[in-house]
Amino acid sequence: MVKRFFTIGMAGHIDHGKTSLTKALTNVDTDRLKEEKERQISIELGFAPLYEDEEVQISVIDVPGHERFIRQMIAGVGGIDLVVLVVAADEGVMPQTREHLDILGFLGIQSGIVAITKIDRVEDEFIDLVKDDILGELEGTVFADAPFMLVDSLAKKGTEELKKLIIDTLKSQEMRDVRGAFRLPVDQVFTVKGQGTVVRGTVYEGTVEEGQSLMVMPKGLEVKARQLQVHHKQAKTAFAGQRAAINLSGISREDLERGDVLVSSEQFIVTRTIDVAIRVVEDLEHLVKQRTPVKCHIGTAEVMGRIVFFDRNELKEESDEILCQLRLEEEAVTKRGDRFIIRRPSPQETIGGGWVIDPRGNKYRFGEQTIQELEKKKAGTPVERITAALYEAKSLSTEELIKRTALPEETLRQHLMREEFVPINGKEFTVRGLADAIEDDITDRLEDFHRETPMRQGLNKAELLQTMQKAFPKTLLDYVVENGLQRGIFARKDQFIRLGKFIPHVPKNWEKRTAGMLEALKRDGLQVRYFADYLQDAGIPGNLAEELKKFLEDERSIVPLDQQYYWHSELFERAVDTMRRGTGTDFEVGDAKAAVGLSRKYLIPFLERLDAMGLTRRVENKRVWRS
């Protein structure tokens, strides 16, 4: 059986007994600070181990309830799997309780238990009234059907029953993903004498091992997990759902702060522009206008930014989900599906919350078309999300796809095996339809080129792809070309690419004149005139002459002696054969002249051509035949 790890949160109004209940359940006082003891309120997040057996390990976060410490509360509940909503019997639901309920809903908490505390302070019949009051407040929230437990923390009445209910509930619940990349939003940073810098937080996903190299985002600082602790005990590995303290090497306390994120890979995106879906609180007090400044609480980070609407200019009351954008003043680390809260900085008020549709938001036009595009992004299936990401970026590695789609690595790899996705270089993928479209485009370009210049071997690959590289990555273009070569769609000669079915040829209307010119060249044997004279005699115009000459050279119909004289290829081969038979292993110019009977006008260029072709090698005043 695979052990599972969970973290629960205690939430509720100030002085409703969260810390006392945590202590009754765990025997740990989570108020660590002197100010907390003196004022008898929780300022910072408190942590304690609740339960552990061979199946599960459960931790508790005691969340501050005072309005002034709302950001600590948000930082704490972001990584929890179940919430115990604490309501004091002698006070009932208070304003802070309602705000906590809103925040828990926006953060997507799915599991909850209501604990009515301080039952020793009221008569039994009054508790029924408190229950009715709470049920009314919980209607429409995640706690609407939550079980109620009555507890007296000081006398430990009902605490064992509550603990059993928590354990039973979590044992029937799925744990967080331990297979993905490791992520831990930092909520505490401190130093331990003799050990150095330590960070603490809830492992959102993945696992981390002692000695593992990690990265602090968004700062991009490389560190190493020197030691791990879970519940104040040394551990070799920390898993998703656990509270973990990590002793880091390679970084000082001053370089870290709450809100930083410890990750094991670069799958997580650092961004300032986020496409989001949000809901707002029912009793929003102040109008939210276009580009209103907001505080965005995401993970354990608190970042200032502005909210940008595309279908309205202001917001007061809205029950439906709103598709919009957050433009942040500082970088944040996030991925699709992450939950967040937005609050007004002044006057302080929770506006709403929601989830990240796309962490790589762009600038869009105001209007219905943008809303429709955001709807498509929001509703996308895994295949649609992969396809959309690949069409946007053209090709992506699996690491980049995980970032853009927020799919677990195993799920992503399974979908990438579908026939509509193509691996292009062992590391990256593209959409088959996109690769096919690029192949069609290259085919059209080559067809046009062959039609206009039928005598050329093809188009230089660099020239062929040059304009396309503005729209597509080079790795993708190279894949399409190589794939086309393997399938015979394209062919290659040296650096030139042509269509596989294409054969370079003289244009039909110049075939007879070209044939006549070659016959004339052949008749003149080795005593040829300037090649330009043959072109002129055949009536071949200057704009075609160079192209034709290059084609005939490539086709080995003619062989240049130099830039002016050319021999017919048959006569050149005969001359080489005659020279071989008429000379020894090495020979001088006089020997060559005696063998082929040429004047120096032709003989010297002929010998230099033999050198250039590698048939002979010059050694001082002699030439040596190469075998």
UniProtKB/TrEMBL annotation:
PROSITE patterns: G_TR_2. Its main location: cytoplasm. It is found in: Cytoplasm. GO terms for molecular function: GTP binding; GTPase activity; RNA binding; translation elongation factor activity. Residues 3-174 form the Tr-type G domain. GO terms for biological process: selenocysteine incorporation. It holds the Pfam family Beta-barrel_SelB. InterPro entries: Beta-barrel_SelB, EF-Tu_GTPase, EFTu-like_2, Elong_fac_SelB-wing-hlx_typ-2, P-loop_NTPase, SelB_WHD4, Small_GTP-bd, T_Tr_GTP-bd_dom. Keywords: Cytoplasm, Elongation factor, GTP-binding, Nucleotide-binding, Protein biosynthesis. The keyword NAD does not apply. Translation factor necessary for the incorporation of selenocysteine into proteins. It probably replaces EF-Tu for the insertion of selenocysteine directed by the UGA codon. SelB binds GTP and GDP. This is Selenocysteine-specific elongation factor. It comes from Mesobacillus zeae. The lineage of its organism: Bacteria, Bacillati, Bacillota, Bacilli, Bacillales.
